[in-house]
Every structure is written in C-alpha cells, then in structure tokens.
Amino acid sequence: MKKLYGLFILFALMLVISACSDDSSGSGDSKDDSGESKDTGEVEIFSWWTGAGEEDGLLALIDLFEKEHDDIKVENAAVSGGAGTNAKAVLATRMQGNDPPSTFQVHGGDELNKSWVAADKMEPLNDLYGENDWMDKFPQDLIDMVSVDDEIYSVPVDIHRGNVMFYNKKVFEDNDIDIPKTFDEFFAAADKLQDAGIVPIALGDKEAWTATQIFENVLLGVLGPDDYIKLFDGEIDFDDERVVEAAEKFGKMLDYIDEDHASRNWQDSAQLVANGDAAMINMGDWAKGYFSNDLDLETNVDFGYFTMPETEDDFTIITDTFGLPKGIDNPDEVKEFLTFLGSTEAQDTFNPLKGSIPARVDADESEYDEYGTDAMEDFKNTRLVPSLAHGSAASEGFLTKADQAVNIFVTQKDVDNFISALQNAAPEM
Ligand code: GAL
Questions:
Q1: CA-to-CA distance for 159 and 182, rounded, in angstroms?
Q2: Band of the pLDDT at 40, cuts 50, 70, 90?
Q3: Fewest CB atoms within 10 Å of the CB: 6, 42, 74, 124?
Q4: 286 CB less than 6 Å from ligand 1?
Q5: Which of 45, 47, 54, 157 to mutate to test the pocket of ligand 1 (most atoms within 8 A of CB)?
Q6: 174: CA distance to ligand 1 center in Å?
C-alpha cells in the first residue's frame, strides 16, 4: 500500500514536471540540451558534486577514467546544491522527458528503489556484478540497499557517515571541553561555550537538509537504532513520546546555533568551525573532505570528530551510487564506466578526497588518514541505519515534507506543530 502510494506521488510529480517541460517528445532517444542525440563515445555523469568539498573526488575520477579510456569522453553534468537540492528536480525532469543522463548520482535505499526502480526506469546490473566478481567485494548490507527483489540496480562508490560532529580542536582545548557522549554532557558543553562567547553549533540551513540531518541524528540517539528503523518503516508513530522528546532536544540544540544560519550553505557553516568562530558542526563526512582538501586542515590536529550524542554504536549510512537508466543509446560504454566506478582504483582515488570510505571491502587502507581508518573500523562494528535527510530511510515525497516541517520548526520551535506535520506526512513514507 505504502509502495503504491509512493508510486502515485512519483507519478503525480512527473505529470507536474512534464506539464512544465518543453521536451515532451517521448521519442525515447537520448538527447543533450540542444535536443540532439548524444554521441556514442561519450558518457554523461550527473551529480550534485560541484564546488569546494564536493567536486575534487569527481574530477579526479573523470581524469583517471579518461586517461585509461581514450575512446570514451566523460561529460560532467553536475548541478550545484548540497544533498541534491536542485539536481534531484532537474533529474526528474530529464527522466520524464526521456532524456536520462548516462548515469546519475542516487542514494542507495528508498531514493533509488522507491523512485527510479519502482517507476521502471533502471536496468538491473546483476550481470555486471557477476562479470566483475563483485558479490563479495561489496558488503551485503550495501548490496541490499541497491537491490529490489534480488535485482541489483546500482554501483556504490562511497560510504559517508552522517552522525558525526566535527569540532575545532583549539576551541575545545581553550575552553576545557571534553568530548560529550550523552545529551546532558552535550548541552553542558554547549552552555560553557556559549558563556565564553563562542557559537556552540554552526548550522547552514539555507538548504533545509542540514537541519533535517541534525534531527535524524537526535532521533537516532533518543530512539536507538531498532526503533529509529521502525519509525521509518511505519511501525512507530511520529506522535510517540520519544519522537516528541527528540523534537524537544532538537529544539534545544537550535538554541545554540549561529544567527545567520539561514543564509549559509553547509560549506559556509563548516568554515565557521574551521575559523574557530563556532565550535562544532553536525555534518556528513564530506565535511572531512572539505576540511582536508579545500581548507588544508589536519585531522586530529586542527579538527576532531565524535559521534552525535548517544549514537556511538550506530552509523548513519549515506551511500552515493550510480546506475544504468533505461533507454540510453550506449549502455555498453556506460557499463564500462560503472565497472570503473566499482574498481578499487577508482574508489581509492575518489574517497580519500571526498572524506568517505570506500564501498568495497578490499580497498587500500593506506590511502586514508586516521579519520578514514576510524570510520572503516566503525562501519564494520556498529549498527547501520539509513539517513532520512539523504533519501535512504523514506520516500522523496515524505522527505520533501519533512524538510518543510523542519524548516518551519527551526524558526517557530513549535513541537506540537512539528509532530503533527510529520504525522500527516507519514502515509507517504
Ligand atoms: C549527500 C551526498 C554526499 C554529499 C552531500 C552534500 O547527499 O551523499 O556525497 O555530496 O550530499 O552535498
């Protein structure tokens, strides 16, 4: 029933988009912006990895692939906006206009499965996994996130962790702050920092997902991983008293954010921490890539990291994956590109720059710094839970409404309204 509802929403979304779109030829040809068929010998990769902290890894991948394949050119079709804020809408338009990119960034979990697989827009890739001997090279949990009914629909290139708090080491040291493990310790540390005139938590919610990300990690801390998963499976209601408690704690965290949060994006807010204007930030570990590669900061010297309160044994997983859309002209070349994306060479080129860990189990650990090796260890020894803010835990329809509810909550802090907005959106999960 939930699946049918999700399909209905997707269909409705596509109708709206197609009504606004000029390209409704429905010819099934793969076209570029000028309306001409795409040349073979070219693979277009669609993502939202542009700018600082996002594109370094992608550009390195493209370079490496083109060096090894002088017969195939890669067209970088990235659309800016963290977490796919703009890219997802552009992608929906293109898919509806029968103009799919050769391959596109999509999160494993509901974003892939309830949107594009359910709409019958993706080719299964079991053969590719077989040919490349990948079945035991990717963790089964990850393969499950990109599979529906035993058909595998995409190739994971990374594993990001979302329940991380990055902090400025000097600010913590100067103010004698110990790493907080519980919510109580966290709020005590935040009070101390605030009293010292430092912004405790940097937030950049110009794009709402950054606040949704904090909320999901607070939910995880309060509910624990089993009930967090049950919540997004519809087995626990959003008006459960623990969800209300999480909303209250989330509201309390918002007492510690910077004033100009609504005008900043995630990089701007991470910069506040880098500069010491703010003490900490909850951000997926693409922030680690940004700190190391764009701001030249050193792990465990300039910045440190800890898990969000009471989520130490959990790993909020965000995996960026790429699949093969139906109806493209040159599937063999795209499969060659996907084969490359799944190789250890590509993953060990991309992930050290991105701040993520490789999706493969046999990558070269020596390519990663202490943050990376810690994350690899935790990935093996903690409980994996899907991220809401990054599309894995619930459908895009629910996520859109949850982002809106969070956005309103950040300014109004009305717990009752927030809970009822989530409750009303729940049938769309
Ligand atoms: C996530 C994505 C990451 C990173 C982040 C910020 O959704 O999985 O790779 O790009 O958004 O844009």
A1: 25
A2: low
A3: 42
A4: yes
A5: 54
A6: 32
The answer, yes or no, to whether any atom of ligand 1 lies below 6 A from the CB of 320, is: yes
Instruction: Name the more confident of 24 and 32.
Output: 32
In the chain, the percentage of residues whose pLDDT exceeds 90 is 90
* Mean pLDDT within 362-371: 96
Task: Give the distance (Å) from ligand 1 centre to CA of residue 191.
Answer: 30
pTM of full prediction above 0.85? yes
CATH 3.40.190.10, the chain: domain bounds: 44-159+318-381, 161-317+388-428
Per residue in 146-156, pLDDT tens?
A: 999 999 999 99
Contact, 171 vs 276, CB < 8 A? yes
Q: Is the pLDDT of residue 392 over 50?
A: yes
Instruction: pLDDT band for 5, please (50, 70, 90 cuts).
Output: very low
Q: Which of 20-29, 243-252, 258-267 is the least confident region?
A: 20-29
Pocket of ligand 1 contains residue 206 by CB under 6 Å: no
Do residues 145 and 109 lie in contact, with contact meaning Cβ atoms separated by under 8 Å? yes
**Centre of ligand 1 from the C-alpha of residue 307, in Å:** 18
Average pLDDT over residues 5-14: 47
Query: Residue type at 235?
Result: E
Task: Give the whole-angstrom CA distance, residue 177 versus residue 174.
Answer: 8
If you take atom 5 of ligand 1, which residue's CA is the nearest one? 83
Residue 318 CB less than 6 A away from ligand 1: yes
Closest ligand 1 atom number to CA of residue 389:
7
Maximum Cα–Cα distance across the chain: 65
**3-class SS shares of the chain: helix, strand, coil, % to 5:** 50, 15, 35
Measured between alpha carbons, how far is 142 from 356 in angstroms, rounded to an integer? 14
Q: How far is the CA of 128 from the centre of ligand 1 (A)?
A: 25
82 lines ligand 1 (CB under 6 A): yes
In sign, the C-alpha dihedral spanning 149, 386, 429, 78 is negative
363 lines ligand 1 (CB under 6 A): no
pLDDT at 39: 53
Q: Please provide the CATH number assigned to the domain covering 44-159+318-381.
A: 3.40.190.10
Superfamily of domain covering 161-317+388-428:
Periplasmic binding protein-like II (3.40.190.10)
